[in-house]
Structure formats: C-alpha cells, structure tokens
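WARN retry 2 of 3 for item q-0093 after timeout on previous attempt; input resubmitted unchanged.
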Amino acid sequence: MSGKPNIKSFSRIYRYLQDPALRTRETGDTLLTIEGAEFSGLNLQGLVWRHVKFVNCDFAGAYEIKLDRLEKSTFDSCKFVGIHGFGDMVDVTLHRCAFGGETYVMGYSDSKRLVFDDCNFVGTDSNRNHWGAVGGYGEAEFVRCKGKWFDLSGLTQLVIRDCEFETVSSKHDPREVANVHAPVLIERSKLRGTFNMVASSIQSLTIRDTVIDALDLTDATIKGEVTMERIRAGKLGMAVASGQALSMKAVTVTGNGQEVFYLAANRFASVLLENCALPDNLSGEKPWMGGAQKEPAYQARPPLNKNLTIRKSKASRLDASYLNTAHLVLDGSEFNHLDLSYGRIGLMEMNNTQIGFSLDLTHCQVNDFKQTGGTSLKSLGGLKIDGSNIKLPR
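OK item q-0093 returned
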C-alpha cells in the first residue's frame, strides 16, 4: 500500500465515480479533481468517466477498474502498478506518471488523442513475459518519456517523440487484431538496446533525427513506406516480410557485431539509399542488401524489386548478391568491395561511382548495362565476371 487514503474514504467523490449520472445531476460538467488517493480494492465496471483530474494518485490491483470510456481527463504525477482498464481513452493525457513491473494500461480500439507525456516505464526484468504494456488498441502518443522492458502500443496510430527507451518493443500481432495497420512515427529519440518490431503489421514507419542501437523489423509487414532520415544506428535489421518503399537518407550505420545491416531488398518494391554510410570496420558479416541467398523459401520464385538506387553513399564492403531487380542505379557512390554475384538485373546504371578494390559479378545476369564516369571496370584488378553476361563498355 502507498500510505495514501483509499479512494473509498473520499465519500462524495467515490459516489460520483460509482454513479456518473448522480455526479452529472449534482455538479453538471464541472471538472472533478481527485488528489492524493489510492485506488485499490475496488469494483468499478462498465462506467463512463468524463472531466476527471487525478493528481498524485496511486493505482494498484488487477481488473478492479474496467471502464467503458474515459474522456477529457488527465493524470498528473500518478503511479500505476497492476492491470487497469480505462476503456476507450479519448482526449486523455498522462503527465509525469510512473508505471512499474508488469503493469498494463491499454486504451480500447476507439482511443484517440491519448498522450503519455514525460512518463516513466520500468519493467521487472529482461524476460519479455514479465514486461508491462502501455498505449492502446487505438491511437497513442509518447512524448518525452523514458522506459525499459515495456511494450509500447498504438495500433491505429503510434507517435514516439523526444523519448529515450531501452530494450522495448512495439509489436502489432495481426493474429490478435486483424486488418488494423498503424502509421508509426518516431522523432528525435534515443532507442537503446533493441527496438523490437519483429513480425509486426503496420501501415508505415517514419524515423527521423534518432539514435538507434538496434532496430529489428524481421518479418514485419508494412503496407506503405519506410522512411528514415538523419539516423545514426548500430544495427538495422530490415528483412521485412513485405513493404512498398524504403527511403533512407543521411543514415549512418556504425556497426555493433554481426549482420549490422541486413536488408532483404527484394521484399520492397523500391529502395533508395541517399547520403548513407555503412560500417567500414566489421567484426562480423559485411552489410547485406541482396535477394534470396539466405532465404531458401525465395530461391525458386524470388520477389522482384522494381528499383534499387544507391546515391552519394559509402560502404567498405557491401554484399548485394542474389539481387533480383528491374533497375539498379549506383550514382555518385563509393565502395571498396561490392558483391553483385548471382543477381538478376534488368537495367544496371553506374554513374560516377568509385570502386576501390573489387566488384564481383560472378553469374550475374544483366539485360542492359550503362556506365558514365567513375571507375573503369576494365582496369579494375578485382573484377570477377565468370558466368556473367554483362558486356562492359569499350
């Protein structure tokens, strides 16, 4: 117990919470302020609360509060432990609140303008079965929050802005909520540890001005676009199940072990890397952005990428083997070692691109090849071309 008086001792206020119609008759739409109360040992089910301000209150217990709806209300400096159901949370802000252990506070599917502002979420330990969950099956926004070992949800819209999280997940399992795909926006944040979006199903993903230790999008289904701008990342796992377009601009991958950059390019309809830098010093595997090499299920009928453009970017070693694309453009970029072996490429264009040591085109089939400026492939000592049909310019 917190030492605060139980809400039941606030007799008039507690009656209003039990009977919202009575409150309306007696006070109309006046704001109800509740300060310094503990909510525990209750049975508040199927109610609608409006215009309530909770200040320095503690919420404990499980399934004791299970509202149908909470509207135009705020929580200021409150603490949550346990499982609490506030129903559809509409125009609700939680400001400077703390959530601990396996706490569960999730708005229902019609939640809108639900904001967690300057809140703190700390789970029990690294075992995901013991993590808490906050957000909602509708809209949710996290601003200036910090957290560790928690699930963050916004299944119709998720915004993360100016936050600092460590080892959290944001996953929408389509087996639990079908035909719901949220746009996800992350801005000006620090994502330490792994930000887990494995096997999620979302509408789009936009990440800007953010530092990321590791992002894992393995087997995620993305209905629209993935946009990354001004990102510094240790590891990017981009082996999505499917996606329409990937745009990465001013993204630097620093490397933190094996598979620091893993992009299944064939699973996106189009890919653009512009002003990007992939790691030069790797302790494990080189960055990979190819096709079916590591994906046996796709070898027989690999999906076709419409276009892959790498513009004004740098990579020491880049493995793009088994790439299957209609149009590959290498424009104003620099590579020490580039592997395009076993690729299937419609049109391949190299414009003012420098290759320092080697280009592997072994068994790469290219319908049309065009080169303007840059490294002369004929004079490149590390050129491998066995089994390729590419015809180099004279």
